[in-house]
Protein backbone atom coordinates (compact mmCIF):
# COMPACT_ATOMS: atom_id res chain seq x y z
CA UNK A 1 0.00 0.00 0.00
CA UNK A 2 1.30 3.44 -0.90
CA UNK A 3 2.18 5.75 2.00
CA UNK A 4 -0.05 8.34 0.34
CA UNK A 5 -3.23 6.48 1.28
CA UNK A 6 -2.69 6.53 5.07
CA UNK A 7 -1.88 10.25 4.85
CA UNK A 8 -5.07 10.89 2.89
CA UNK A 9 -7.11 8.98 5.45
CA UNK A 10 -5.47 10.89 8.29
CA UNK A 11 -6.17 14.19 6.53
CA UNK A 12 -9.78 13.17 5.97
CA UNK A 13 -10.21 12.20 9.62
CA UNK A 14 -8.73 15.52 10.76
CA UNK A 15 -11.04 17.42 8.41
CA UNK A 16 -14.10 15.51 9.60
CA UNK A 17 -13.18 16.12 13.25
CA UNK A 18 -12.65 19.84 12.59
CA UNK A 19 -15.95 20.15 10.73
CA UNK A 20 -17.93 18.39 13.45
CA UNK A 21 -16.22 20.39 16.20
CA UNK A 22 -16.93 23.71 14.49
CA UNK A 23 -20.49 22.79 13.55
CA UNK A 24 -21.19 21.65 17.13
CA UNK A 25 -19.94 24.98 18.42
CA UNK A 26 -21.90 27.08 15.91
CA UNK A 27 -25.18 25.22 16.31
CA UNK A 28 -24.62 24.99 20.06
CA UNK A 29 -24.48 28.80 20.23
CA UNK A 30 -27.87 29.03 18.59
CA UNK A 31 -26.57 30.02 15.18
CA UNK A 32 -27.85 28.65 11.89
CA UNK A 33 -24.70 28.61 9.77
CA UNK A 34 -24.65 27.88 6.07
CA UNK A 35 -22.49 25.06 4.78
CA UNK A 36 -20.08 27.68 3.43
CA UNK A 37 -19.82 29.28 6.88
CA UNK A 38 -19.11 25.91 8.48
CA UNK A 39 -16.42 25.18 5.89
CA UNK A 40 -14.80 28.57 6.43
CA UNK A 41 -14.80 28.24 10.21
CA UNK A 42 -13.36 24.72 9.97
CA UNK A 43 -10.62 25.86 7.61
CA UNK A 44 -11.62 23.54 4.77
CA UNK A 45 -12.87 24.10 1.25
CA UNK A 46 -16.57 23.76 0.53
CA UNK A 47 -15.78 20.86 -1.79
CA UNK A 48 -14.11 19.09 1.13
CA UNK A 49 -17.09 19.70 3.38
CA UNK A 50 -19.56 18.44 0.79
CA UNK A 51 -17.32 15.46 0.10
CA UNK A 52 -17.83 14.31 3.68
CA UNK A 53 -21.32 15.70 4.30
CA UNK A 54 -23.30 16.11 1.05
CA UNK A 55 -26.14 17.97 2.79
CA UNK A 56 -26.89 20.07 5.85
CA UNK A 57 -29.07 17.23 7.11
CA UNK A 58 -26.17 14.78 7.00
CA UNK A 59 -23.91 17.27 8.75
CA UNK A 60 -26.37 17.80 11.60
CA UNK A 61 -26.91 14.05 11.82
CA UNK A 62 -23.15 13.57 12.24
CA UNK A 63 -22.97 16.30 14.88
CA UNK A 64 -25.82 14.70 16.83
CA UNK A 65 -24.12 11.30 16.56
CA UNK A 66 -20.95 12.83 17.99
CA UNK A 67 -22.87 14.44 20.88
CA UNK A 68 -24.73 11.21 21.66
CA UNK A 69 -21.47 9.24 21.65
CA UNK A 70 -20.00 11.70 24.15
CA UNK A 71 -23.11 11.42 26.33
CA UNK A 72 -23.11 7.62 26.23
CA UNK A 73 -19.45 7.48 27.25
CA UNK A 74 -20.08 9.92 30.11
CA UNK A 75 -23.05 7.96 31.44
CA UNK A 76 -21.21 4.65 31.13
CA UNK A 77 -18.37 6.07 33.23
CA UNK A 78 -20.84 6.81 36.06
CA UNK A 79 -21.01 3.09 36.93
CA UNK A 80 -24.62 3.56 38.04
CA UNK A 81 -24.93 -0.02 39.28
CA UNK A 82 -22.80 0.82 42.33
CA UNK A 83 -25.62 2.77 44.02
CA UNK A 84 -29.25 2.05 44.90
CA UNK A 85 -31.46 2.86 41.94
CA UNK A 86 -32.95 6.04 43.41
CA UNK A 87 -29.51 7.43 44.30
CA UNK A 88 -28.16 6.41 40.90
CA UNK A 89 -31.11 8.11 39.21
CA UNK A 90 -30.25 11.42 40.85
CA UNK A 91 -26.64 11.05 39.70
CA UNK A 92 -27.87 10.27 36.20
CA UNK A 93 -30.11 13.35 36.07
CA UNK A 94 -27.49 15.69 37.51
CA UNK A 95 -24.89 14.41 35.04
CA UNK A 96 -27.25 14.44 32.05
CA UNK A 97 -28.53 17.99 32.51
CA UNK A 98 -25.24 19.88 31.90
CA UNK A 99 -24.74 17.85 28.72
CA UNK A 100 -28.28 18.53 27.54
CA UNK A 101 -27.99 22.19 28.50
CA UNK A 102 -24.77 22.45 26.50
CA UNK A 103 -26.38 20.90 23.43
CA UNK A 104 -29.94 22.23 23.76
CA UNK A 105 -29.61 24.73 20.90
CA UNK A 106 -28.08 22.00 18.76
CA UNK A 107 -31.15 19.94 19.64
CA UNK A 108 -33.36 22.75 18.30
CA UNK A 109 -31.52 22.68 14.98
CA UNK A 110 -31.70 18.88 14.87
CA UNK A 111 -35.45 18.89 15.50
CA UNK A 112 -35.96 21.27 12.59
CA UNK A 113 -33.68 19.33 10.25
CA UNK A 114 -34.13 15.70 11.30
CA UNK A 115 -37.53 15.61 13.00
CA UNK A 116 -38.49 14.38 16.45
CA UNK A 117 -38.68 10.66 15.60
CA UNK A 118 -35.21 10.50 14.06
CA UNK A 119 -33.78 12.48 16.96
CA UNK A 120 -35.43 10.09 19.42
CA UNK A 121 -33.84 7.13 17.63
CA UNK A 122 -30.45 8.76 18.13
CA UNK A 123 -31.17 8.99 21.85
CA UNK A 124 -31.93 5.27 22.09
CA UNK A 125 -28.18 4.80 22.52
CA UNK A 126 -28.25 6.71 25.80
CA UNK A 127 -31.73 5.77 26.98
CA UNK A 128 -30.62 2.19 27.59
CA UNK A 129 -28.94 3.55 30.74
CA UNK A 130 -32.33 4.86 31.88
CA UNK A 131 -34.06 1.61 30.94
CA UNK A 132 -31.61 -0.51 32.94
CA UNK A 133 -31.77 1.81 35.93
CA UNK A 134 -35.56 1.94 36.11
CA UNK A 135 -35.78 -1.82 35.60
CA UNK A 136 -33.38 -2.36 38.52
CA UNK A 137 -35.36 0.05 40.68
CA UNK A 138 -38.52 -1.89 39.90
CA UNK A 139 -36.85 -5.19 40.77
CA UNK A 140 -35.64 -3.70 44.07
CA UNK A 141 -39.08 -2.33 44.95
CA UNK A 142 -37.99 1.30 44.69
CA UNK A 143 -39.83 2.28 41.51
CA UNK A 144 -43.39 1.76 40.41
CA UNK A 145 -44.36 -1.28 38.37
CA UNK A 146 -47.96 -0.30 37.64
CA UNK A 147 -46.93 1.48 34.41
CA UNK A 148 -45.04 -0.03 31.44
CA UNK A 149 -41.27 0.32 31.55
CA UNK A 150 -41.14 1.77 28.03
CA UNK A 151 -43.60 4.47 29.06
CA UNK A 152 -41.53 5.41 32.10
CA UNK A 153 -38.41 5.71 29.92
CA UNK A 154 -40.34 7.85 27.43
CA UNK A 155 -41.57 10.05 30.27
CA UNK A 156 -38.01 10.52 31.54
CA UNK A 157 -36.90 11.55 28.04
CA UNK A 158 -39.84 13.92 27.63
CA UNK A 159 -39.33 15.64 30.99
CA UNK A 160 -35.61 16.24 30.40
CA UNK A 161 -36.24 17.73 26.98
CA UNK A 162 -39.15 19.79 28.26
CA UNK A 163 -36.72 21.32 30.76
CA UNK A 164 -34.37 22.16 27.89
CA UNK A 165 -37.22 23.87 26.03
CA UNK A 166 -38.22 25.84 29.14
CA UNK A 167 -34.62 26.92 29.74
CA UNK A 168 -34.31 27.94 26.10
CA UNK A 169 -37.45 30.06 26.43
CA UNK A 170 -36.17 31.65 29.63
CA UNK A 171 -38.97 30.27 31.79
CA UNK A 172 -36.63 28.35 34.08
CA UNK A 173 -33.03 28.97 35.03
CA UNK A 174 -30.58 26.33 33.77
CA UNK A 175 -29.02 26.32 37.24
CA UNK A 176 -32.38 25.39 38.80
CA UNK A 177 -33.07 22.57 36.35
CA UNK A 178 -31.13 19.75 38.08
CA UNK A 179 -33.16 20.08 41.30
CA UNK A 180 -36.43 20.46 39.42
CA UNK A 181 -35.67 17.45 37.24
CA UNK A 182 -34.54 15.24 40.10
CA UNK A 183 -37.66 15.92 42.15
CA UNK A 184 -39.97 15.58 39.14
CA UNK A 185 -38.50 12.33 37.84
CA UNK A 186 -38.34 10.71 41.27
CA UNK A 187 -41.96 11.67 41.92
CA UNK A 188 -42.97 10.11 38.60
CA UNK A 189 -41.14 6.86 39.27
CA UNK A 190 -42.03 6.41 42.92
CA UNK A 191 -45.32 4.65 43.55
CA UNK A 192 -47.36 6.32 46.27
CA UNK A 193 -50.00 4.47 48.24
CA UNK A 194 -52.67 6.66 46.63
CA UNK A 195 -51.58 5.35 43.22
CA UNK A 196 -52.35 1.74 44.08
CA UNK A 197 -55.45 0.42 42.29
CA UNK A 198 -58.45 -0.20 44.52
CA UNK A 199 -59.47 -3.79 45.14
CA UNK A 200 -62.52 -4.78 43.19
UniProtKB/TrEMBL annotation:
<dbReference type="GO" id="GO:0000976">
    <property type="term" value="F:transcription cis-regulatory region binding"/>
</dbReference>
<protein>
    <submittedName>
        <fullName>AcrR family transcriptional regulator</fullName>
    </submittedName>
</protein>
<keyword id="KW-0238">DNA-binding</keyword>
<keyword id="KW-0805">Transcription regulation</keyword>
<dbReference type="InterPro" id="IPR009057">
    <property type="entry name" value="Homeodomain-like_sf"/>
</dbReference>
<feature type="DNA-binding region" description="H-T-H motif">
    <location>
        <begin position="34"/>
        <end position="53"/>
    </location>
</feature>
<dbReference type="InterPro" id="IPR036271">
    <property type="entry name" value="Tet_transcr_reg_TetR-rel_C_sf"/>
</dbReference>
<feature type="domain" description="HTH tetR-type">
    <location>
        <begin position="13"/>
        <end position="71"/>
    </location>
</feature>
<dbReference type="GO" id="GO:0003700">
    <property type="term" value="F:DNA-binding transcription factor activity"/>
</dbReference>
<dbReference type="InterPro" id="IPR050109">
    <property type="entry name" value="HTH-type_TetR-like_transc_reg"/>
</dbReference>
<dbReference type="InterPro" id="IPR001647">
    <property type="entry name" value="HTH_TetR"/>
</dbReference>
<dbReference type="Pfam" id="PF00440">
    <property type="entry name" value="TetR_N"/>
</dbReference>
<keyword id="KW-0804">Transcription</keyword>
Amino acid sequence: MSSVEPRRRADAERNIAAIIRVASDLFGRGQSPSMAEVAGAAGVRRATLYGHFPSREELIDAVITHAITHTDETLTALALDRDPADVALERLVRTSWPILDRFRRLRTAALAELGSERLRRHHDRTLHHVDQLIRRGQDDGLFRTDLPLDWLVTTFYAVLHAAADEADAGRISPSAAPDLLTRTVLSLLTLRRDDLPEDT
